Known about the structure:
Blueprint: H1 8-25, H2 33-51, H3 59-62, H4 79-102
Amino acid sequence: xxxxxxxxxxxxxxxxxxxxxxxxxxxxxxxxxxxxxxxxxxxxxxxxxxxxxxxxxxxxxxxxxxxxxxxxxxxxxxxxxxxxxxxxxxxxxxxxxxxxxxxxxxxxx
Length: 109
């Protein structure tokens, strides 16, 4: 029986929940854990679409378009790298949002 390692999305889920709990523990987040986790995932998906085109080489870039596919289809998507980079960028953006809420740059009321 082999033991499988968690996938990139499972690690992202763990990172989001751990980050929101840590920020709540240190009293940096003026919002609850559930709302902080929801905001993290919204930020994560927005950052995903910003990070997605970084470093992608398409079939038309290489000049080897497979018949029946789009010329803009990626050659090697490298999903794990994209998920990891998205998690890093989203964590920084999420921290900036929480700090803006904490120091009342963006008021809650």
